[in-house]
Amino acid sequence: MYGDEFRGRGGRGGRGRGEGRERFERSDRGFGGPGGRGMRGEWRGRWDEGGDFRGGRGGRARRGDVRAAVLALLAERPMHGYEMIQELETRTDGLWRPSPGALYPALQALEDEGLVTVDTSGGKRLLQLSDAGLAAVAGAPENRPWENFGTGVPEAHLAMREGVHQIGTAARQVAQVGTEEQKARAAAILTEARKALYKLLAEDA
């Protein structure tokens, strides 16, 4: 069944089957959603719960993008569903990470249409293109939706996204292996950083 590989991934404290999947879907509802103020109103997007920036001009998923991306990825090599999500996130520098709720219906539709076949011999659903799927890709060889993401995104936004990611990684490492004193100091550093950011916004008000 599509989506089984997400059960148990990322659930806080291991609570509940599918909690990781719920988080994926919650953090990726649309691109460019409510957003915040763009830099001087020029660009809009939003930060998700994991610290990644989503959406905005040049980073919007269009109808059919997930389907086209699946076909293009499988033309390169067979993949698992979760692997596709990771691959798309990597190729767009974190700007596009389709939710399981967007990916798995597309995979099921492609399988129903006979464009994708599934190998379950390894215990997971490994997807690959059928002959009909290969023919469909051959008819649209340049259709790689991930190449459209990031176009027109200001460098400052990309730099902020990378900074948030790096800070989050460092904070998680301290939380996992740091002493109680180090954790307390890290919490104080994060508090001061948050205050400094709000102060920066106040200067522009």
TrEMBL record:
Organism taxonomic ancestry: Bacteria, Bacillati, Actinomycetota, Actinomycetes, Catenulisporales
Extent of Basic and acidic residues compositional bias: 16-29, 39-55
Record-annotated Transcription regulator PadR N-terminal domain positions: 70-133
Name of one Pfam family that matches: PadR
UniProt protein name: Transcriptional regulator, PadR-like family
Domain of life per record: Bacteria
Protein species of origin: Catenulispora acidiphila (strain DSM 44928 / JCM 14897 / NBRC 102108 / NRRL B-24433 / ID139908)
InterPro entries for this protein: Tscrpt_reg_PadR_N, WH-like_DNA-bd_sf, WH_DNA-bd_sf
Region of interest called Disordered, as start-end residue ranges on this chain: 1-61
Entry-linked Gene3D superfamilies: Winged helix-like DNA-binding domain superfamily/Winged helix DNA-binding domain
